[in-house]
Amino acid sequence: xxxxxxxxxxxxxxxxxxxxxxxxxxxxxxxxxxxxxxxxxxxxxxxxxxxxxxxxxxxxxxxxxxxxxxxxxxxxxxxxxxxxxxxxxxxxxxxxxxxxxxxxxxxxxxxxxxxxxxxxxxxxxxxxxxxxxxxxxxxxxxxxxxxxxxxxxxxxxxxxxxxxxxxxxxxxxxxxxxxxxxxxxxxxxxxxxxxxxxxxxxx
Length: 203
Prior knowledge:
The protein has 203 residues and is mainly alpha-helical.
């Protein structure tokens, strides 16, 4: 029994390490972490966090999300990825906390829905949507709450009185597109990976 537990733990740690490495690569390689589609630039990192949460659970999803968040926080000081980064992502509430919550929300949602309905695909889709929504709402919400300033508004090309409209426009464009991306991609990858994980745990 102890040998089986050790084998399961080793497998889980291996998958977690791989997914963590993927999110590091996504963060440092622009075309892996951000996909330009017309006027939009869609992040893909949240999808990796959601996949981790669905396959390994909310805690591991939070760990991978936390790695992404800490990288975002460090980059804001060391080598900002945009003019906005050194203004807002130096605050862990904006850069780290929302990424951790993606994993927790997606993982808890999937576990609750699957336990209730026993239907993995629909549970994954809803978990992916809520995970992506969590990131968008928390990041944009905290930017508005903590950085309702002329400097931040200028980055968005508006005056401070129109900052809410600018953030709302980002939610409608990037936010909804990223939710759709997560709802499609996360189940496609998580379904076979989850089956492999279940077989490994059963053996």
